[in-house]
Amino acid sequence: MRTRVITAVIALAIFLPILFIGGTILQLTAALLAVIGVYELFRMRQIQLLSYEGVLAALGAIVLVLPKNPWFSFLPVNTEKWMLYYFVVMLILGLSVISKNTYTFDEACFPVLVSLYVGVGFGNFVSARMDKDGLIVLMFAFLVVWSTDIGAYMFGRKYGKNKLWPEISPNKTVEGALGGILSAVVVAVIYLIIFPAKQYFDHSLFTVALMTIVLSVIGQFGDLVESAFKRHYGVKDSGKILPGHGGILDRFDSMLFVFPIMHLLGLI
């Protein structure tokens, strides 16, 4: 526990100032986190990051994370950066030709999905911060996820009896999941009273509170998805970069699902 607390304090001391500063440093940090996320997934599958598909998956994730301007301003005005990402996908698929079909389509799907999963998640994180009220939106997202995690742990520990999904995550309970949602809504309502929902999210307090329920559920589902990856590959943590916490994906698994859904709901 002491190691977890020390790591959390150091990580927050580094991460929170980057959130406040925003701009280039936040974009590069997000790109770095995305590359680490790609590395962690490749490590689970026992593939080197410094391989043909590993390098391309990392490049694809970077393309999805960094905004077109200024990073890809060399592209024609009417060309979306998604086309540049698709070019990376074409290069991955082309390995089946170069390898004379020893590298299959099924194998190519792994680096493509990895780059999408990590790149779109961190890309929406960057997009959220670029808005004029981006810091307020980002903090809302983090508070929803953090309060869900803490609430789920506390309620699950005290009241947990019914397993939520034992085949994927044996320690999670239905009571904990519901407690996480309740905690997220309470924290979100308090936050939205301080930062009015209509002003910063263009929705009523009631509407954003309902969206908070959705985001809390989605965040917990993102956590379960990453747990499924680890169980499939037989690893306890996605990595070791954060002592006591595991890897980057262990800390951002919920965020990688929450940020895109916030975009889908119009909150970003």
Automatic annotation (TrEMBL):
Does the record bear Nucleotidyltransferase in its keywords? yes
Write out the annotated subcellular location.
Cell membrane
Q: Keyword Nucleotidyltransferase on this protein?
A: yes
Query: Which InterPro entries does the record match to this protein?
Result: PC_trans (IPR000374)
Q: What's the domain of life for this entry?
A: Bacteria
Q: Which reaction does it catalyse?
A: a 1,2-diacyl-sn-glycero-3-phosphate + CTP + H(+) = a CDP-1,2-diacyl-sn-glycerol + diphosphate
Assigned protein family: Belongs to the CDS family.
Any coiled-coil ranges, and where? none
Cite the PROSITE patterns for this sequence. CDS
- List, in alphabetical order, the Gene Ontology terms for molecular function in this entry: phosphatidate cytidylyltransferase activity
Q: How does it sit in the membrane?
A: Multi-pass membrane protein
Q: Which residues cross the membrane?
A: 6-37, 49-67, 82-98, 110-128, 134-155, 176-197, 203-222
Entry EC number(s): 2.7.7.41
- Tell me which Gene Ontology terms the entry assigns under biological process: CDP-diacylglycerol biosynthetic process
Query: What is the protein name for this chain?
Result: Phosphatidate cytidylyltransferase
Q: Which UniProt keywords apply?
A: Cell membrane, Lipid biosynthesis, Lipid metabolism, Membrane, Nucleotidyltransferase, Phospholipid biosynthesis, Phospholipid metabolism, Transferase, Transmembrane, Transmembrane helix
Q: In which pathway does it act?
A: Phospholipid metabolism; CDP-diacylglycerol biosynthesis; CDP-diacylglycerol from sn-glycerol 3-phosphate: step 3/3; Lipid metabolism
GO cellular component annotations of the record = plasma membrane
- State the top-level EC class: transferase
